[in-house]
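Hi everyone, sorry if this is the wrong subforum. Our group has a chain we'd like a structural model of before ordering constructs, and none of us has done structure prediction before. Sequence below.
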Amino acid sequence: MKRPNILIFMTDQQRWDTAPPFSRAQMPRLEAFAREGITFSQTYCPSPHCCPSRATFFTGLYPTEHGVWNNVQVANALSRGPHFSVPLFSDSLQEAGYDLFFSGKWHVSSQATPADHGWQLDAFFEKRLTSDDLADYRTWPEWQQYQQRPTEHKEDRGHLQLQRPGYPPFTLAGVHESPFRDRETVTAAVERLRSRTTDDGPWCQFVGTLGPHDPYIVPQRFLDLYPELPELPESFEDAMQDKPGLYRKMQDVFAALDPEEHREAIRHYLAFCSYEDWLFGQILDALDPEVAENTLVVYLSDHGDYLGEHGLWAKGLPCFQACYRVPAIVRWPQGIQNPGRTVEQFVSLADFAPTFLEAAGLPPAAQCSGQSLLPFFHDQKPNSWRDAIFTQTNGNELYGIQRSVTTKEWKYVYNGFDYDELYDLVADPMETNNLLSTGAAAYDSVLRDLSRRLWQFAYEHNDTCVNPYITVALAPYGPGVAFTAENDMD
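Answer:
Right subforum, don't worry. Here is the predicted structure as tokens:
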């Protein structure tokens, strides 16, 4: 088979349940797209932030391996980009003769642009982000926003607005014709796609939009698709008294909004997803039908959004499924058997880099931790596949060490900054009842087993979050359980 073209459409901060097969948002183009391909309904990012998750997508590695832990474009960043020795899948594709084009959001490194990894850049991106101004983070205006616009706390806030003393006001949702200039990003990609013919290739094109990231500011015509205010999520009233204090501290910020404003914000978010669906439709329409036959097209997102669950919005350290589970749908007419299927195995964003390389007939990077999804394309179950998903974060602008392991039945969250969490996902899928808050004795065997698996993963993926010093070694079961045989746990 001729090497496929690869087209990637990555949204920013989109939850899994807005897309097929859940379809909480109206996304007709994606619905039709899913019927022509495969939906990976249990896809997770490794961290609830853009940069580490995008670095995982491009490298096939976890944060402990590629080295990106936080927003690389803030002055207090712990990491500025992947380790210099870490390749991206685009490096291999370029060496193999692929023509690469990049349009939209990068957010993988502040020390290198996509051009440093083989991509041609659209003019809009190139104008905004050059290697020179990316590297000089010392001049970033962290304090200018306060000096130039002195903030004044007002008792009377605007609709959907949050007032915080000493901070600029924040408006959660609104109306704008081209939010985040996503239309310009898609227009640049469309122009390139329209020029593709069956004589070209192979090529790879990345389209990175910023929606439906907060603030949820969308064109009015997409809001009109949702005439009724959506209901609040089941967990909205969760006071989180059994969860880490930071969770409640974040919840307190959004408590200023009344229930109707929360519902209005949900409406704006769903409308934003519908807008992204419309943009994705333009990308699909730009593909020549003959070219599309051998083009592997991926629709996915970097991480999710709380969307009012537990009274929270946006993303952050609270380790709920809402921020970690993302949509992932693939179409490839010449490479997918029995389209229209839904795969329910656990998938990681780390799996896409080795998938692209194998589809292109290339070996995966030597240190790649993800697994190729190609067996699922062929309607085959791999000989071995993960039965748990693991997450890693050291926080973003607000730092805090956190790791988690999730199986189909249980979820354990190790919080280095506070008490841990354990959820029975069968009885409590909304993660409202932390079983460790009333004592761990009744769940000790579960906790020990999940701790063993969490530390095994940490060992296998070069996680150095294992300091034994007495004031920081606060896990209920430390890293040593990773080397305890499963049958010796009792």
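For your construct planning: The CA atoms of residues 223 and 305 lie 19 Å apart. The chain has two domains: 5-377, 407-488.
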